[in-house]
Amino acid sequence: MNPTAALDRIRVVLVRTSHPGNIGAAARAMLTMGLTRLYLVEPRYFPDEQAEAMATGAVDLLKRAQVCATLDQALTGVQFCVGTTARVRDLSAPMVDCRIGAARAAEEAAAHEVALVFGAEIFGLTNEELDRCQLLLNIPANLAFSSLNLGAAVQVVAYETRMAALQQGIAHKAKEYATQEQLEGLYEHAERTLYQVEFFDPQRPHRMMRRLRRLFSRTRLEANEVHILRGILTQVNKKAGGG
Predict the structure, then answer these.
(1) Global pTM?
(2) Would you call 232 helix, strand, or coil by DSSP?
(3) For 180-239, CATH number?
(4) How far, rounded to the nearest angstrom, does the alpha carbon of residue 63 sit from its chain's CA centroid?
(5) Using an 8 Å Cβ cutoff, are 89 and 135 in contact?
(6) How far apart are CA 59 and CA 22, in angstroms?
(7) Where does the chain hold its CATH 1.10.8.590 domain(s)?
(8) What are the pLDDT digits (tens) for 103-158?
(9) How far is C-alpha 113 from the geometric centre of its chain's CA atoms?
(10) C-alpha of 163 from chain center
């Protein structure tokens, strides 16, 4: 198999981008590394002439960008989601440096849909958005000046992902991992059930759900495992009188 074919299964997702020039710069950075699928969640300005000016030779990629109303919409069909963050978050998925995270993304993309998610320029991704991710990626920049432009961050991650794809010459056993929407369905079902059986601490119910998300993110659930867990939850619903 062509080692760069995995790149076709990787989408770059930019969330709430404020400056259109950064969208264009990200598109150009992607194309130089063979990534061609751009998803935009609630961009402040798009389409925009400044985005096209910064995209230079990647205008066609920019024009094919998918504009989405929510992150969940942008992650439809994704089976492995990598979120980028500049700092350690409480109760988040495991965090690794850029090279390790890119290698994981390339490995997963050999057989599965993968998303690389970047947050807004100033505040990055929210905790709720990072909860959608199975892995968090950090670029280990100079601590004295660690602020990276969005386009530069996309370039670094795209480069490491391409290098990892080129170096991976091993065969991957294809597994039917759960998609993002299947996982969200499981989490919503679990939350309803745990409320029903009064398991939650009423003062902090959402903290427990974040811990459960973190647990399942580490285990990488397969689609049939999600079906099993939802079957168990359905039986709990029935026994508890919820139907």
Answers:
(1) 0.77
(2) helix
(3) 1.10.8.590
(4) 22
(5) no
(6) 13
(7) 180-239
(8) 999 999 999 999 999 999 988 999 999 999 999 999 998 888 877 899 999 999 99
(9) 10
(10) 20
DSSP-H helix ranges across 34-149: 49-55, 59-63, 71-74, 98-108, 127-130
Residue 233: CB atoms within 10 A of its CB come to: 18
The answer to whether 39 and 11 have CB atoms below 8 angstroms apart is yes
Give 139's DSSP letter: -
Place of tokens 């990626």: 137
Return phi, psi of residue 62, to 5°: -60, -40
Choosing among 3.30.390.30, 3.40.1280.10, 3.90.1570.10, 3.20.20.480, the CATH entry for 3-167 is: 3.40.1280.10
User: How do strand 114-118 and strand 66-68 relate by DSSP bridges?
Assistant: unpaired
For the chain, residues classed under CATH 3.40.1280.10 are 3-167
Residue with tokens 């990892």: 164
For residues 79 and 180, the answer to whether their CB atoms sit within 8 Å is: yes
How does strand 10-15 pair with strand 37-41? Answer: parallel
Query: How many residues does this entry show for the chain?
Result: 243
For 22-54, give one letter per residue: b (16+ CB within 10 A) or e. Answer: bbbbbbbbbbebbbbbbbbbbbeebebebbbeb
CA distance 5 to 110: 8
